[in-house]
Each structure stands twice: as structure tokens, then as C-alpha cells.
Amino acid sequence: MADRRKRGDARDMERAVAAFALKPNGGLILTPDPAAIAHHELVINIASRHRLPAVYPYRYFAAEGGLISYGPDSVDPFRRAAGYVDRILKGERPADLPVQAPTKYELVINLKTAKALGVEIPSTVLARADEVIE
Which of 16, 30, 57, 66 would disulfide-bridge 71, Cβ 3.0–4.6 Å? Predict the structure, then answer.
């Protein structure tokens, strides 16, 4: 049953991305949806096959062939959690600690994918990137 659900998700993603690709000057912004994350390789491949520029929520999307990723640094929350552990061990109540949102975001650009899509990334954007994959 799980395999059938995965195939359904894949077909749904194929249809959705293909619909974006049909629109002139279209693009795709992928949100951190659990299904899209679980099928990230599929989404990257579909976007590539349809020559659709896409922005993804996490670095590993760009590292695996996506065009651009912009999202929270995946390591920073763990570093900051150490401070919370320290405060709790010193006696603070967890309920009294504020909820923390990400404070550091990463911009990663995959130039190999940009070239394959025929997309030129302005030098000003490349200069602001935290990482450029060539």
C-alpha cells in the first residue's frame, strides 16, 4: 500500500511541475512540504526534465542538482540548542525559555544546473551566495 501511495505522489508531482512548466517564463518555488522533501530527487529531476528554474528550501536540493536553495542553515539550530541545554542544566524551566526561529539563512546556487537550464545568474546574486556549486 505504501508503494502505491508513493507512486501516486510521484504522478501528482509530475503533473504539478509539468503544469508550471507550460506557463511562459514560469518557475517553481518549492516549500518545505514533507512529500516534496521525501521525493526531493524526483522533484529535482522533473524540474530539470521540464527545464524549469526552481528555488528549493534546503541546501541539499542545490547540492543534488537543483538550481537554487534558500533556507535556514541546517546546523545553526543545533549549535543554539546547546545554549538551551546549558540553561536547563543550570535550573531554568524549559517552559520559560523563548521559542527560537532560525536566524541564519543560506543561499546556494548551482551554476552547472543554471548552465543546463540556460539561466544566467547575475554577478550581484552570485556575490551574495553563501555557496556556489560549479
Answer: 57
3-class DSSP state of 84: helix
The pTM assigned to this predicted structure is: 0.79
- Give the strand pairing for 28-29 and 105-110: unpaired
What does the alpha-carbon distance between residue 10 and residue 43 come to, in Å, rounded to a whole number?
Answer: 9
Could you tell me the three cell numbers for 5? 501511495
Rounded to the nearest 5 degrees, what angle is found at the Cα of 45, between the Cα atoms of 14 and 52? Answer: 75
Q: Model confidence over 106-126: pLDDT tens digits? A: 999 999 999 999 999 999 999
How far are the Cα atoms of 24, 112, 116, 126, 133 from residue 107, in angstroms, in the given order?
A: 25, 16, 19, 9, 11
